[in-house]
Amino acid sequence: MLDARQLEALTAVVEQGGFSGAAKALSLTVAAVSLRIKSLEEVLGQRLLIRGKRVRATPAGQALLTHVRQIQLMEADLLSQITHPSGSGHTTVRWQSLSVAINADSVVSWFLPGVAGLLQRHHLLVDILIDDQDHTHDALKNGEVTGCVSTLAQPMRGCVAEPLGVMRYRCVATPALAEVCRTPAGRVTPHRLLSRPAIIFNRKDALQDVFLAQYFQLRDARYPRHFTPAIDAFEAAIELGMGWGMVPEVQLQQRHGRPPLVEVLPDAPVDVALYWHHWEREPLTAQRLTQAVRNAASRALLPPPGLPTA
To answer: Were 22 and a residue from 12, 87, 240, 280 both cysteine, which residue would form a disulfide, CB within 3.0 to 4.6 Å?
Structure first.
């Protein structure tokens, strides 16, 4: 049997990114945390952590973290059933936490609106790790989260990848800036477009490069860029005429009362297929979240590739 205190120490070290943070979270000394990790590694006969500026789990450590998170959720579900039997009177509410990795566009436009009711009804806490949709899968692989929204279609071992739908992006700018990108004849040219900065969420964001490759056959193009890693700042920068950017169509439809934005290149969408990755054997709480994600995505996204449009 694995020692629960050792597993708790392993989880804390990875979540906090180091031994000092884990010691503080567990109200232990750094030496005590280190001893628990060392003992666990000796029992299993292999290293579980990669020491560095930020401590990371080895593949064996990642597998163990996934196991720990599954056990924690199952225990929480069991305690909820015991302390909240059907028809019982008022009891102390037990809050359960679910960790997920999601791209910022999905969080704002459909994920939170779609799961808010579930979280309130079942007293769930959500711990969201924000990352680009091409990289969220790493968090699930590393054992950091129980589910993720990703562009990858292939599930890893022990997991399921469910098609959620397509998030459609449009290249937009203020009307004045869009006009600058056009020739007197009204044609958008790469030279004029790339003479103005692009507004980019962060350095992992490659949507603008996909747009340039898809519609102008440009690859590895060099052009000025503003980096604004916050949704409100990202859209504000475009509204202020600082540059052009790729904005989800679903968010453009929600811009009531905001300054107008127009497509730089009309009828030129970039479609990104999204998938919900989760454990194959999910505890009840995680199953509820998966169903809520399915429902929310079906309302906000275009149908998955291969399915007819309603």
So the answer is: 12
